[in-house]
């Protein structure tokens, strides 16, 4: 397909006597990003959307974190959960456990 287009361009250039083939306006490629939009206005719009999203997420986080949550009762202290056959070098409690006084 591409070779047919090239051959057609070469033939038309030879017929017209022009040494360099010119692209016709119909075959000129236009890109979608090359629109008539103002880039500054588009950037400003997305900046406002970003700040609105940040504010919305912050408000939702504050509302969700300020709600109370249920506190469950402490499970009974079963003796088989805390078996110590030998004392630790640092004392009866574990190294990272809360000491019960």
Ordered list of secondary-structure elements with their pairings:
Layout (H helix, E strand, L loop, with lengths): L1 H15 L22 H28 L35
State the gist of this model.
This protein has 101 residues and is mainly α. The chain contains two helices and no strands.
Question: What does this 3D model show about the protein?
Answer:
There is one protein chain. With 101 residues, the protein is mostly helical. It is 43% helix and 0% strand. It has two helices and no strands. It has helices at 2-16, 39-66. The longest helix has 28 residues, at 39-66. The model has no long low-confidence stretch (mean pLDDT 79).
Mean pLDDT, rounded to whole units?
Answer: 79
Estimated share of beta-strand residues = under 5%
Low-confidence stretches: none
How many alpha or pi helices?
Answer: 2
Q: Based on helices, strands and strand pairing, what is the structural class?
A: mainly alpha
Distance, first to last CA: 88 Å
Shape: elongated
Strand runs, count: 0
Largest sheet: none
The helical percent reads 40-55%
Helix-strand topology string: HH
Gyration radius over CA: 38 Å
Family: Belongs to the cytochrome c oxidase subunit 6A family.
Main location: mitochondrion
Subcellular location: Mitochondrion inner membrane
Keywords: Membrane, Mitochondrion, Mitochondrion inner membrane, Transit peptide
């Amino acid at each position: 397909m591409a070779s047919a287009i090239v051959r057609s361009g070469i033939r038309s250039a030879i017929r017209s006597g022009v040494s360099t083939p010119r692209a016709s306006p119909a075959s000129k490629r236009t890109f979608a990003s090359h629109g008539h939009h103002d880039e500054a206005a588009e950037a400003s719009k997305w900046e406002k959307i970003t700040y609105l999203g940040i504010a919305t997420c912050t408000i939702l986080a504050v509302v969700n974190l300020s709600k109370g949550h249920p506190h469950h009762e402490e499970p009974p202290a079963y003796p088989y959960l805390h078996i110590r056959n030998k004392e630790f070098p640092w004392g009866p409690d574990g190294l990272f456990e809360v000491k019960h006084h």
